[in-house]
Each structure stands twice: as C-alpha cells, then as structure tokens.
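TICKET: design request
STATUS: open
ATTACHED STRUCTURE:
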C-alpha cells in the first residue's frame, strides 16, 4: 500500500507572509492538490505533517538571544548524555495555535474528503525536529510510524517543504524504517538551491536509499 506524506505546507513556510518562507514554496500547493486527487495514484492514505512548536522553542534564535540563522550547538536533552549536534537557529515559526502553524487553507479544503491524518512534530520545547518521525536525537518518536504500519503502508512518497530540511530528513527516516521511499522533486522546494547544495543533497539521498524523481 502506498501513502503520500505532505510535509509542513504551513503558512509560516509559505511566501509572501510566512516568517520562515521557503522561496517559491507557494508554487507546490496546486500541484500537491492535483496529486492527492489524481485517481491514477490510488493513495491508500495521505498524511500531513505539521511543525508545531511551543513558544520559546529551542530552535528559535530569540530563545537564546542569538541572531536568526546563526549556528548553534544543541546539547542532548537526555540527562547525563554529553552528545551535541550542530544546528541553525530560526526566526519564530509555527507556534501552536497561531496562523503561521496552520496548514494552508487551500490545501486542507481540498482534501477533507480523503482518508488523511495530521502528524505533529516539534512540540517538545527542548529539542529540534526535522524528520516527521522523530526529534534530531531519535529519542522522542511521533505517531507517524505507528500510523503507517497500522494502515499497511509499505511505500511512501514525500512532497512539501523544505526539500533540504524536513522533506529530506523525513525521507531518510522512512527509508531507515524500511519503507520504500521516494521524494517527488517537482512537488517540493528547497531553501538552498545552488548547484553545490543540490549535488550534496542528491548524494545524501542516494546513500540513504531514497529515490528522488
Ligand atoms: Zn521548526
């Protein structure tokens, strides 16, 4: 059975008004609606993921009094674990129960008639998430994997925003968890679109058994 995963098509990731807008991100909305409604695709389920942060989330620059888009070293949220990870601090985005966190209306209106589920991520304050399956430490897991297994999904197709962050990480997790995984490139947009970044991304996906078509 195949499931479509639509990653983070939320107001804050969309131009012109989103606080962390992905360039040209709004261009994917109509194509994704067509893809969902295409009878030839025969989606068994459609999942929408949402970045869903509390105020003062650790990924917000303002939480640490640092400039937006600066580099930051995250410490493991697990007591006694001295592991660190490098990350980027973002403008405030996708705060729970705000306009910015809503999946764009146009998309939600179109899909109300389908079997779909919404998966929230990023709701624990002390850790960053990119993948819709788990936080960057792989300590906390969302309900996405359980949902896919319960609905007999063996194959996932991933679209949405942004290609080089949450789409990429969600796809790599899916492949690691044993799903046959494909990113549909035309239904995504990246933050970094230069040739070097794209080549690096393609290599990373290939090494992790994710198809990019
Ligand atoms: Zn976020």
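STATUS: resolved
RESOLUTION: sequence designed for all positions
ATTACHED SEQUENCE:
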């Amino acid at each position: 059975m195949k499931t479509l995963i639509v990653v983070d098509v939320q107001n804050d990731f969309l131009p012109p008004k989103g606080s962390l807008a992905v360039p040209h991100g709004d261009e994917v909305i109509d194509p994704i609606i067509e893809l969902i409604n295409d009878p030839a695709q025969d989606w068994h389920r459609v999942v929408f993921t949402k970045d869903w942060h509390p105020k003062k989330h650790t990924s917000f620059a303002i939480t640490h009094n640092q400039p937006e888009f600066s580099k930051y070293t995250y410490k493991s949220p697990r007591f006694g674990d001295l592991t660190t990870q490098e990350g980027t601090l973002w403008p405030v985005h996708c705060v729970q129960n705000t306009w910015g966190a809503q999946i764009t209306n146009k998309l939600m209106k179109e899909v109300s008639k389908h079997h779909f589920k919404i998966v929230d991520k990023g709701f624990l304050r002390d850790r960053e998430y990119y993948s819709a399956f788990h936080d960057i430490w792989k300590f906390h897991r969302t309900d996405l994997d359980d949902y896919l297994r319960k609905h007999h999904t063996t194959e996932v197709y991933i679209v949405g925003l942004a290609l080089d962050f949450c789409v990429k990480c969600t796809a790599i997790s899916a492949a690691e968890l044993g799903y046959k995984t494909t990113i549909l490139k035309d239904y995504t947009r990246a933050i970094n679109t230069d040739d070097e970044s794209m080549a690096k991304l393609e290599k990373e996906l290939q090494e992790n058994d994710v198809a990019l078509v």
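CLOSING REMARK: The two ends are 19 Å apart (CA to CA). Residues 51, 53, 59, 93-94, 122 surround zinc ion (CB under 6 Å).
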